[in-house]
Amino acid sequence: MEDILDIGKITSAHGIQGEVNVFPLTDDLNRFCQLKKITLASSASTFSGDDARTRKMEVRLESVRVHNRMVIIKFEEVSSRDMAESLKGMYLRISRKDAVKLPPDSYFIHDLIGCTVKQKSGNPLGTLKDVLNLPANDLYVVSSREFGEILVPALKKFILSVDIIRKEILVELPDGLVEINARKEKDDGSVSV
Predict the structure, then answer these.
(1) What average pLDDT score do residues 10-22 get?
(2) Binning pLDDT at 50, 70 and 90, where does residue 69 land?
(3) Is the dihedral of CA 163, 100, 134, 49 positive or negative?
(4) Is 163 part of any domain?
(5) How many Cα atoms are found within 13 Å in the side-chain-facing hemisphere of 170?
(6) Residue 104 φ then ψ, to 5°
(7) How far apart are CA 162 and CA 105, in angstroms?
(8) Could you tell me the pLDDT band of residue 93, with boundaries at 50, 70 and 90?
(9) Of the candidates 124, 160, 159, which has an alpha carbon nearest to the alpha carbon of residue 144?
(10) Is residue 36 part of a domain?
(11) Do residues 44 and 74 both lie within one domain?
């Protein structure tokens, strides 16, 4: 498991005083109000890790407010709209030790990404590449060499077990779900769904 977690992504500047709009990558928006310092990084730790091209900077939070499922943050080091606009696309990172405690059977998306997804039969289905947060329930986006992209409802009746240490998720899918996602190759080599 990584020692860092991305909890938000800066989407734009807000106003002219250096505030930024942050799209939260966490369910608890008020958790931003508890933070004093945070690391900004130019790439998501979930997908690319850190390399020489990742721009990072530590900033102190001056103010935080929640508005329409977005978080508006003012950093002490950012005093103008131009400075705020230069942060667009950066991720807000925290140390895992500063993360909130999760209830049982809840996981950080960061830890789920990259897990091997296996069917109850033991056959590998693919790799979890994303989690879509939808009003009814989350959907796991599984990338399969054989079937393309498979959307798996993140419900207990389909997700039998999650082993973050072994990076494995065991699923029992409803009949036909995999086949709906099966790729059909055309004569010209293109793929249709």
Answers:
(1) 97
(2) confident
(3) negative
(4) yes
(5) 8
(6) -55, 145
(7) 8
(8) very high
(9) 124
(10) yes
(11) yes
Q: Are residues 26 and 67 in the same domain?
A: yes
d(CA 23, CA 85): 15
Tokens of 59: 């900033």
Domain, as residue range, for 171: 109-182
Q: What is the pTM of this model?
A: 0.69
Cβ atoms of 5 and 94 within 8 Å: the answer is yes
CA distances to 16, 51, 137, 184 from 140, rounded to whole Å, are: 38, 27, 10, 22
Q: What is the rounded CA–CA span in Å between residue 155 and residue 140?
A: 10
Q: Which amino acid is at 34?
A: Q
* 6-147-115 Cα angle (round to 5): 30
Question: Which alpha helices (DSSP H) does 14-172 contain, by range?
Answer: 45-48, 81-85, 109-112
Distances (CA, A) of 33 to 63, 83, 88, 144, 170: 8, 22, 20, 39, 36
CB 100 within 8 A of CB 152: no
In 3D space, the residue among 133, 126, 152 whose CA is nearest the CA of residue 141 turns out to be 152
Name, in order, each residue with C-beta under 8 angstroms of 125's C-beta and a sequence gap of 6 or more.
117, 118, 119, 142, 144, 147, 150, 171, 173, 178
User: Does residue 68 sit in the same domain as residue 26?
Assistant: yes
Question: Which tokens in the block code for residue 7?
Answer: 């909890």
Last residue of one domain, picked from the residues 46, 78, 98:
98
In a domain, 39, yes or no: yes
The tokens describing 123, both together, are: 């056959």
